[in-house]
């Protein structure tokens, strides 16, 4: 399955040109809701939870203790078979352990052989380069053939090492199975030797100080976004390859305002969704990663004012042209997808 060209190998340059070629349906994936599958009580809630989220993910990697890895894998397979994921449209994903861990081979083989017909996406953590994707691609192809699956299982890479970050474009292009990439701010912070114990979000010490005032009055100090560069680079890599970028986890479950702000920054920069680690974060993701109704109204006015997408129009004193028509289309298309 490996190929070096993006799945969307051409983009519409002119009006009337076809939409980018996609061999997969475009899905709404505003929140990837993480579930620890070894816990019976949590697993029992999955059928109720499934209709409320875009994606449920059975987590086998970090946060699952080493002595619960087998139970988590068995729980993930049970989860796959306790809901009609394919029929009802909620995505069913699993985050497996890293390729060089003692669990990867069993995670992937059991998931594909016993639950492959329900599994949409395998999330691959700590991806360092395209070679990791190539290896997993061939391994999954063997298992899919053995299981007689006809629908390909897709891959989602987590960007959480400096090495992976440096090769993000190659990772995004590594296989037609690539569905998207998430930022993994905790592992990435550790690997980069960033001095923070937080999982995503801002840091009170990461600031810029205003220049000194002539009158000696106190200088304002403004907190900056620690993740701006990383998210922007990840978004460029993903969109170049025709796949989606995702923010990842926001660890302070008690700070809903900060979570919302981080998710919104990611949305504005181009991300399609984020992880929800707690039910509290589901509604935040749903709200933030759906377009704002006023923006949608304005976007639709732009599309109506320029039916063929060319020329120039003035709306509320703001100039519109072919480029703003494309911006409006991004928002209107997302609104249609959310409404579908
Ligand atoms: C997620 O896996 C992270 O490391 O932030
Ligand atoms: Mg991680």
Automatic annotation (TrEMBL):
<feature type="binding site">
    <location>
        <position position="187"/>
    </location>
    <ligand>
        <name>Mg(2+)</name>
    </ligand>
</feature>
<comment type="similarity">
    <text>Belongs to the HpcH/HpaI aldolase family.</text>
</comment>
<dbReference type="GO" id="GO:0006107">
    <property type="term" value="P:oxaloacetate metabolic process"/>
</dbReference>
<feature type="binding site">
    <location>
        <position position="160"/>
    </location>
    <ligand>
        <name>Mg(2+)</name>
    </ligand>
</feature>
<protein>
    <submittedName>
        <fullName>Aldolase</fullName>
    </submittedName>
</protein>
<dbReference type="GO" id="GO:0003824">
    <property type="term" value="F:catalytic activity"/>
</dbReference>
<feature type="binding site">
    <location>
        <position position="160"/>
    </location>
    <ligand>
        <name>substrate</name>
    </ligand>
</feature>
<feature type="domain" description="HpcH/HpaI aldolase/citrate lyase">
    <location>
        <begin position="52"/>
        <end position="279"/>
    </location>
</feature>
<dbReference type="InterPro" id="IPR015813">
    <property type="entry name" value="Pyrv/PenolPyrv_kinase-like_dom"/>
</dbReference>
<keyword id="KW-0479">Metal-binding</keyword>
<dbReference type="InterPro" id="IPR011206">
    <property type="entry name" value="Citrate_lyase_beta/mcl1/mcl2"/>
</dbReference>
<dbReference type="GO" id="GO:0000287">
    <property type="term" value="F:magnesium ion binding"/>
</dbReference>
<keyword id="KW-0460">Magnesium</keyword>
<feature type="binding site">
    <location>
        <position position="95"/>
    </location>
    <ligand>
        <name>substrate</name>
    </ligand>
</feature>
<dbReference type="InterPro" id="IPR005000">
    <property type="entry name" value="Aldolase/citrate-lyase_domain"/>
</dbReference>
<dbReference type="InterPro" id="IPR040442">
    <property type="entry name" value="Pyrv_kinase-like_dom_sf"/>
</dbReference>
<dbReference type="Pfam" id="PF03328">
    <property type="entry name" value="HpcH_HpaI"/>
</dbReference>
């Amino acid at each position: 399955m490996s190929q070096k060209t993006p799945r969307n190998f051409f983009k519409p340059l002119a009006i009337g040109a076809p939409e980018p070629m996609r061999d997969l349906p475009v899905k709404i994936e505003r929140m990837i809701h993480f579930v620890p599958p070894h816990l019976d009580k949590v697993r029992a809630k999955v059928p109720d939870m499934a209709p409320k989220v875009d994606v449920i993910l059975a987590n086998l990697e970090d946060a699952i203790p080493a002595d619960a890895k087998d139970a988590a894998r068995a729980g993930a397979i049970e989860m796959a078979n306790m809901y009609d994921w394919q029929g009802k449209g909620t995505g069913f994903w699993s985050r497996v352990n890293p390729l060089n861990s003692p669990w990867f081979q069993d995670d992937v083989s059991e998931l594909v052989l016993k639950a492959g017909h329900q599994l949409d996406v395998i999330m691959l953590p700590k991806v360092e380069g395209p070679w990791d994707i190539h290896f997993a691609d061939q391994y999954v192809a063997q298992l899919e053939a053995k299981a007689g699956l006809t629908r390909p299982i897709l891959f989602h890479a987590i960007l959480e090492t400096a090495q992976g970050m440096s090769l993000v474009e190659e990772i995004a292009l590594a296989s037609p199975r690539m569905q998207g990439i998430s930022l993994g701010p905790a592992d990435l912070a550790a690997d980069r030797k960033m001095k923070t114990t937080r999982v995503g979000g801002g840091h009170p010490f990461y600031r810029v100080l205003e220049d000194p005032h002539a009158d000696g009055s106190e200088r304002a100090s403004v907190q900056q976004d620690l993740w701006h560069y990383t998210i922007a680079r990840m978004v460029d890599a993903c969109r170049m390859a025709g796949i989606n970028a995702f923010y990842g986890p926001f660890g302070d479950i008690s700070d809903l305002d900060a979570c919302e702000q981080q998710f919104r920054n990611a949305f504005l920069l181009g991300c399609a969704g984020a992880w929800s680690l707690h039910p509290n974060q589901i509604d935040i993701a749903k709200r933030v990663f759906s377009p704002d109704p006023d923006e949608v109204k304005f976007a639709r006015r732009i599309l109506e004012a320029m039916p063929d997408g060319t020329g120039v129009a003035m709306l509320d004193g703001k100039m519109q042209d072919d480029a703003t028509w494309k911006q409006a289309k991004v928002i209107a298309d997302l609104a249609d997808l959310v409404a579908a």
